[in-house]
Amino acid sequence: MESTLKRTWAEIDLDALENNYRKLRGHVGDGVKFLGVVKADAYGHGSVMVSRKLQELGADYLAVSSIDEAMELRLNHITMPILILGHTPREQVERLIAYDITQAVTCEAKAVEYSEEARKAGGTLKIHIKVDTGMSRLGYLCEGEHFDTGVEGICHACSMEGLEVEGIFTHFAVSDEPGEECRAYTEHQFELFCKVIDEAEERMKDNNFHFAIRHCANTGAVARYPQTYLDMVRPGLLLYGYGEFAEELGLLPVMTLKSTISTIKIYPAGTKISYGGIFETSKTTRVGVIPYGYADGFFRCLSNKCRIMTKQGLADQLGKICMDMSMIDLTDKPAVDVGSEVEIFGKNNSLNELAALAGTIPYELTCAVSKRVPRSYYCHGEMVEKELMLRM
After folding, report:
1. Which residue in 39, 126, 130, 320 is the catalytic one?
2. Global pTM?
3. Phi/psi-derived region of residue 83, left when phi > 0, alpha when psi is between -120 and 50, beta in every other case
4. Is residue 39 flagged as an active site residue?
């Protein structure tokens, strides 16, 4: 659906996405499969369009969080392998099989349920086994005293009727964090993961069983730990060109969030701006109103802290951010007028810096861009698609 209102919008640069994919492919080297993480609507970038591009470029796998996210892709002609990282209820197994969707299995109970449902459906469910090596979230627990029972459970899943075990994976907790303690923890997770794989394959050697795809390298590991690449890597934030490692790897931000100046007013010294009056003008101040507020994804905690890029440079945001709009200081920017475009974040205004000011990570800001913000997709400088999630 298309909006006729030029209010606030996100421009998604598919050429930047291609650049990032190719740079990351070159970084991890030949023989390593590439999984594009497109959960949460591709971190706010639009999962269908991002997946189409990755499919066109030759990526090997996609990852989503739920069957609903997987079905959105399948029903929009995405045919490449899709892995669901989160839980799927047992009653949905028949659909997983029908649409050739791979499911993560995180414990014995789920393996049993999925096996039972696959046999009822008369089909085979492709799965990847999840190992909890220290994230303490999902996966077969294999640390310390749980090692033998964890490996035994994994081997049991591999022998269950109705299940095709294609892969095994784990998730690093601190691979993107600095410091020797984090490095040691990541290396411990990786060593435990490899030990689990070796032990499981040793116990199943009579059946000549081997995991076809072993994967654990998330964004931090892709950047810092080449020994963890194994058979496939799973870059998330890196794919979209954000985070501390993006620049050193030659990656580009894929999303640029823009708005316009809708109103300009001149206020004398001593005027309080917005709710609570937390900002007061110290001189005659030219104030621009932009139709971008916390309902669009502009975190209110950024009030009076951040800056917006204009054609004449950065402008301070003034006062508390409102639901539908916010104010910026245009006093020294006479060429910025009503209708002028501004950049909230993107190629000229760092999302990383905005996230740091908000005390969060870049993922959260791109995921927060709300459904009333249209996404426009560009390739070779031309808009090729436009999406609006609102129902009309």
Report:
1. 39
2. 0.94
3. beta
4. yes
